[in-house]
Amino acid sequence: MTGSEPRGSQVGDVEATRDEWLERLKELVAWVKDAAEKTAWRTRVIEKSMRDSVLGPYKAPALLMQRETVEVILDPIGRFAPGTDGVVDLYLLPAYDDIASLYHADGAWKLHYAFRGAAAVTGIKQADSMPLDAASLNRVLDEITSHAA
User: Which of 68, 87, 82 minimizes the C-alpha distance to 144?
Assistant: First the structure.
């Protein structure tokens, strides 16, 4: 399924779409958990109650991560967003600050984050878009950690 799919009553099989989304989230959370633990983050998977106009109410996995006094959450946002097959945010707790977003498109997760020193267009920093891999995840987590200090 692609992010350009129609929403609402035009989604063919709501249950199958929800199951596919939850499986994609479980795989992402497991991968991020493994990658984070390899770089000294403590992790805990939690359930987040979700309510979607198409998929209805459901519980989705989220991931809490902590290194020293820095806490970060990998937080599912929703299955439907323009041009994607799902959105998950990664941000510093408790202030919901320093947000990176993960978008699933073309069969893979992409990580979007505005690094310090990123070029600005009319005062708005442009977010880098990169494939999600261990190096890009660690780069973003390190940058978020440096902002918390």
Answer: 68
